[in-house]
Specification:
- The structure is a homodimer.
- Chain A has ten helices and seven strands.
- In chain A, the strands form two sheets. Chain A has a four-stranded parallel β-sheet, with helices on both faces.
- Chain A is globular, with a radius of gyration of 19 Å.
- Chains A and B meet through helix 1, helix 2, helix 5 and helix 6 of A and helix 1, helix 2, helix 5 and helix 6 of B.
- Chain A binds a DNA duplex (30 and 30 nucleotides) through helix 4.
DNA sequence: CCAACATTCTAAAGATGATTAGAATGTAAC
DNA sequence: GTTACATTCTAATCATCTTTAGAATGTTGG
């Protein structure tokens, strides 16, 4: 029952990576891990799954060498094995988005602001942020902000926005971002800010999309 | 039993693509299809599997929208849905090769000439081929050559080399290529040519690797 | 050393995937 | 229309993956 063709072995090895990305839960874990390293419990909470199940999926990802485990006291921190893994996730997502109508439809239904940034608009946003013409806020949990964030962005986690509205200059355009196009936190933030009378917008980029475009990430 | 988290839907759609690339046989089919469109029978032969099984795998790939079927008389021709699909395959392979030692070991055991081309050496090979300093031969079946080949390459299918040795200038360096790093035809060609007294070398690039680097493909 | 806790391992259930053989479909050539 | 042929569909079997619960592991802080 061993493979007969000599190069069967090779395809089997690549299929290890393929199998690792064949589960929606594991893709969600990869998406979360591209925000920075996280413990099993954090990952389980963020993905709304049982810790045991998260652990099992992480084991599969670890066996495919897509993630690495690092013990820190009682906790184990998982992280992506490299930026190429984050890019593989982006690549997979891009292919799915290009060819699967269902995904595009679901994305449009889900997000209030479906506009994506092109390379130029990324650069121009960066420039406007640098000049202070817009306020860029990172609405992810603060740990993720500290693991890496867009240049000139300030941390304003979704759960704290209502308490911290005073920090935002009233007239200025506010641009919110979160974990990427599959994350809804920036939509919620924009909805909340607009209700409070701010001019707010979202971008679908997260740090992974930003970095994959060659733009800088601050830590 | 419906998905509770709103973005579960999104990850599930991307996982459709993930599942499609989770099988070694399907990866081999994608590799073959990145050489150009092929019929089910050709694919089955090239991958050394039963036609019915090839058809079943192609169905999965088609449902994930990675390949397209085009009827032509009694035959059905399958092709990749786009160059992004070929690039996804290259991306997956690159991630596997970077992180899985087993794959690197298997590749080294398998190939006599494990050297890969960097961007510069690709350009310099192109230049040498243009100047006629080296003879580049495409040892794949002729149909694949006609579907697209490296610039300045001439078709010399592995099965015909022995009969057509007279076409090759004796003193000159010969560079053979085939379907890519997982294909052994260029290794065989080099072994054969050297035995006949030629100076022969292989490159691991195929047309997909060449094109992904932004270099031109002739058809 | 003991208790608390994060994580993994084991075992078992159901769900899904791979593979094969035989029947069915649809097109082309006569 | 009938025949030949490439491909797909159906059904059945076996293997693998997913998920859950309970037991086990390993580390920290007393």
């Amino acid at each position: 029952m061993k493979p007969r063709k000599p190069n069967d072995l090779l395809f089997e090895q690549v299929a290890r990576v393929g199998k690792a990305v064949a589960s929606p839960k594991r893709l969600e874990l990869l998406d979360l891990l591209s925000q920075g390293e996280k413990t099993v419990e954090t990952l389980a909470n963020d993905a709304s799954i049982d810790v045991k199940l998260a652990s099992a999926h992480l084991k599969v990802l670890k066996e495919a060498r897509l993630v690495e485990a690092r013990r820190e006291g009682r906790f184990i921190n998982y992280s992506l094995s490299g930026s190429d893994v984050a890019n593989l996730w982006l690549n997979l997502r891009a292919v799915a988005e290009k060819h699967l109508v269902e995904l595009r439809v679901a994305l449009e239904l889900m997000s209030s602001a479906p506009e994506r940034l092109t390379a130029e608009s990324r650069a121009s946003l960066l420039e406007k942020a640098r000049l202070g013409e817009v306020i860029v806020i990172d609405v992810r949990p603060e740990v993720e902000y500290h693991a890496g964030h867009l240049p000139f962005a300030r941390s304003m986690p979704l759960s704290e926005i209502e308490r911290r509205l005073a920090e935002l200059p009233p007239g200025k355009e506010i641009v919110a971002y979160c974990r990427g196009p599959f994350c809804l936190m920036s939509d919620e933030a924009v909805g909340l800010l607009r209700k409070k009378g701010f001019r707010a917008q979202k971008i679908t980029d997260g740090v992974a999309e930003w970095a994959a475009d060659g733009l800088p990430i601050e830590a």
